[in-house]
Amino acid sequence: MASSADVHVRICGQEIIKYDLEIKALVQDIRDCPGPQSTLMELNSQVKQKLNKLRLRIQDLEQMAREQDRETDRLAIQAETESQRRQMLSNQTAWRKANLACKLAIDNTEKDELLHGVENHSTRQRKATKESLVETSSSITENLMSMSRMMAEQVKQSEDTIGTLATSSRTVQETNDEFKSMTGTIHLGRKLILKYNRRELTDKLLIFLALALFLATVLYIVKKRIFPFI
């Protein structure tokens, strides 16, 4: 049966996928948007909201990875977190390109309107559109830089994790070598004890034979002294 922590990780992963798909759909809407400026601004606002929610859920997933008891689970969730960060970075890049494509489409539309004698109001609207797109591009660039820094930190954490695993592996190997050495020493000690036990038995037997010989000699001498005629 799945634990509560596993359920939370699974739910968080599903929400991340949901936001990712929603962002992709909005980016496609921006790419296909012919204008006006208000429509583009509304789409960009929705993308920002979804990106913020996605970023928070990825951070939650990273925190869940740190709280895992098993090393394998922690590394698996960290790998998934890294993958989702890269996907978010890809979405932001696609968002920026979609805005540029939309800007080009709006510029082309405005050129057509100018050729047909559009009023000064259209000119002001075009200027506002360009300024908004520049601001949006700057915002996306800042987000990309932030993501790059986050990815660098994650890579550093992954390197530290690999170093910890390598140290643990060396410790286990050293312990195993010491265990083998102790086993060899115990085996040698057992052989020495068996050898000493056999030697002790031999010594007791020799002492018994010597004592028997001594008693036989004494009896023989006594017999000759007391019963010389026998």
UniProtKB/TrEMBL annotation:
Superkingdom per UniProt: Eukaryota
Transmembrane segments: 205-222
UniProt topology in membrane: Single-pass type IV membrane protein
Pfam family, one: Sec20
An example molecular function term from Gene Ontology annotations: SNAP receptor activity
Annotated CDD domains: SNARE_SEC20
GO CC terms: endoplasmic reticulum membrane; SNARE complex
InterPro entries: Sec20, Sec20_C
Main location: endoplasmic reticulum
GO BP, sorted A to Z: retrograde vesicle-mediated transport, Golgi to endoplasmic reticulum
Compartment(s) of residence: Endoplasmic reticulum membrane
Keyword terms, alphabetized: Coiled coil, Endoplasmic reticulum, ER-Golgi transport, Membrane, Transmembrane, Transmembrane helix, Transport
Sec20 C-terminal domain sequence ranges: 136-226
Chain coiled-coil ranges: 44-78
Family recorded in the similarity comment: Belongs to the SEC20 family.
Name of this protein: BCL2 interacting protein 1
